[in-house]
Protein: G6473 protein
Amino acid sequence: MSSQQMLAVIVGSNRGIGLQLTKALQSKGYDIVAACRKTSSDLSAVPSVQIVEGVDVATPDGASPLLAALKHRHIDLLFLVAGYQHYDKFGDLDAEGLKIHFDINAIGPLLMVQALRQNLGKGTKVVLVSSKMGSIGDGRTGGNLYGYRMSKAAANCAGATLARDLKEDEIVVGLVHPGAVDTDMCRAVRASMGVPEKDRGKNLLKADDSAQRVLKIVDSLDMSKSGTFWAADTGEALAW
Structure:
């Protein structure tokens, strides 16, 4: 993946996969705009990165600080990484808990892309970090986690529809499952499921490894693959 000082924007960059994508792309020579609600010490330590705080996919005007920072700059890579996962199970579901998942995982990223439309053009790659838990046809990830699964399925639908609407302008849209990754979010969900602390990182990819695998998938995306759904951990195309 050659950068030639191309611009990468990562929404949800202060920790986990977003932070590692920021580091990886910075090391490749990209001009980076790292967007987040609030920076972290790890993100602030990454050299030559423009950090934009106050960017919140869950709020109606959450893109405003990013739009102000970008002005009319062309985005080459746009990553929508920010997400939410809370353990829920049948019998204990509530409407508010389900709605929060949709606001952050599906509606927010779609509206963020819409808000940044003026910065997207020929050659842009828009990448929604999804999950194979949002695949209805895959069937390998068990049950429960209704809010997360349903919202990621909705995000997948949004990405596939975006690909059709942006095709004429030669904007590529990709949906990527990063694998089961050792992040604070994943560990918190495992804690809610009663997994002992010593086992909460078991069989999980490290975030830096996941980021490299995601970038490998993104590098392979072109217009012929726009709107497709991929697993970065295995390199396979995923069922809807």
User: Anything to note?
Assistant: The longest helix spans residues 95-115. Strands lie at 7-11, 31-35, 49-52, 77-80, 125-129, 172-177, 228-231. The two ends are 28 Å apart (CA to CA). The CA atoms of residues 174 and 228 lie 6 Å apart.
